[in-house]
Amino acid sequence: MGWLPAPVEELLDVALVGELTVVGRGGRPITHPLIPLYHSGRIYLHSSTLFSKKLEHIKREPRVALSISDPVATKGNPDRVTIQGTARLIEEDPHADWERLILDLWRRKEPSIDDFLKVRVALPLFFERSVIEITPERCLFWAEGRTDRAPVETRAPAREAA
Amino acid sequence: MTATLTRSGTGSAHATTADDLERLAAYPHVVVSWVADDGFPVSVATTFQTDATAGIVVLAAPTGLAIPTDREVGVVGSHIHPVPGGYDERRYLQLWGRVEDGSRFTPSRAWGWDEAEMPFFEYSERSVPQSRRYLKQLSAEKGRTIRPRLSPFWLALRTTRLPFLSATAVPVLLGIAVAASHGAFTWWTALLTVIGASFAHLAINVTNDIFDTLSGADDANPNPTQFSGGSRVAVYDLVSIRGLVLLAAGLYAAAAAIGLVLVVVTESITLLWIGIAGIALGLAYTAPPLKLVYRGLGELAVALGFGPIMLLGAYVVQTGSLAWEPVVLSLVPGILISLILFVNEIPDRAGDAQAGKRTLPVRLSPNVVRTMYLVGGIGAFGVIVVGVTGGLLPWPTLIALAAIPLVLRVHQGLKVHYDSPYTLMAVMGANVNVNLIVGGLLLVAYAVTIVAMQLS
Q: Whole-model pTM?
């Protein structure tokens, strides 16, 4: 469905954590560890309104980058990738949108989320969430995680770019 | 508290310190990021070495991506530990600064979070103002009000703090049991008593939340637990203050209506005065001008309310008169339920102090609090012994002494977990159980007494 190379999709499918970099005020790069989800060529991240400063930054500047860099979080897969793309926030209903859109993807990667959902009454604001949908535009891939070597660069076909 | 929040594990941005560089050195790699000329952020993983003395980080320059020297650069270390079903040991550290010579990074600002230093629940509580701000902005953007929600069942349970009704059940059922042992029992007035007392308790819970929200006590408390810190429904904007006021008024009205029915049925002016005293005490607990709990008198108010007022009220509904036996017995749940409040105030004490809510744990040292708990807990059992010795309580009530080890266990738990709100939760739970178990044993004792009387 998407244009990302197969090894990159594999990384996105297994990674428990990636590093989302957004552009803060004054052009400051701000990086947040988040669990990346992948479906039909789009990357989905999500954020509680408790930790929503990143969402404010994305509203001002939707250009973002996502790195997957930690083999501990990728079941030992040593490859590394950075994906640049344009983010869109889905938050018409922060109470329910994320459940409809990404809960199945989330629980596939982190089944323990169901235990937290059972005690939603104890963490009501944690489950008020916005979905960050990233349309990939450029991909830098380092096989074996060797960033001492030049990355393999891939770009979205023109019609895919946001 | 301020000193704590300047460290990188606590989610607060600050000027870089040597501690930050020492923390960064523990990560196996970092992700370096900057904003490229095309407006997109670039990020790349690399290895590094820290030089805390020079205050720099030497980055291994990634091939094919030159780290710019003319703009701010971010360096992030991130760690998780995968476990079945998810991950734990979350921590990360972000530094910002400038790069010279393509690899020499001099940080100037830092920010991070380490769940080993600041538990996730506390981190979340400290972020509540951000959530409220964001949802307000979102509402403005969308042109409609967007508020956090819970399902009606969970919202009702959370708003009223329904599970705390066990505290009401014990004295009311004991009052009914004592009356039954005196030969007086009408099932439907007993049922109405339980319902009316429950409405009164829930009304007091909601009133307490209204005033603790307005005073800022709940906002100032970053460590609420399932036993302490209030319902927080107004702090989270799940329910407005107006909604809480209407709910409290409705619950008080329901309690008063049931109370009046019982007064009419029993034709007891004593019951009327007990009911008035109960509602007045419930309001005075947190409401101005008395604000008893703010003056260190909360335990006394709770002891009176959940001891003599609840138990004697239930007794008078059945018998129409007062007696010494229920007076003596009422001291037991009165003391034990006031000790629930006493222990539950321990994790709240920093926020309470900040809001001017000078509860006993705010006023007293940990040693004195622990000693008072032990004296109070043992004192409750002393009341039973004295009551039996004096011929006021039936001897089977001595069975409740079997719960003494639980009090000692809670006392021990207070020694170990006094300063740790989240590990103290188990101790608070055990303390709630002390009242339930003692109450249960006393009910068994009265059941035995009633059966024995009928057999003799």
A: 0.89
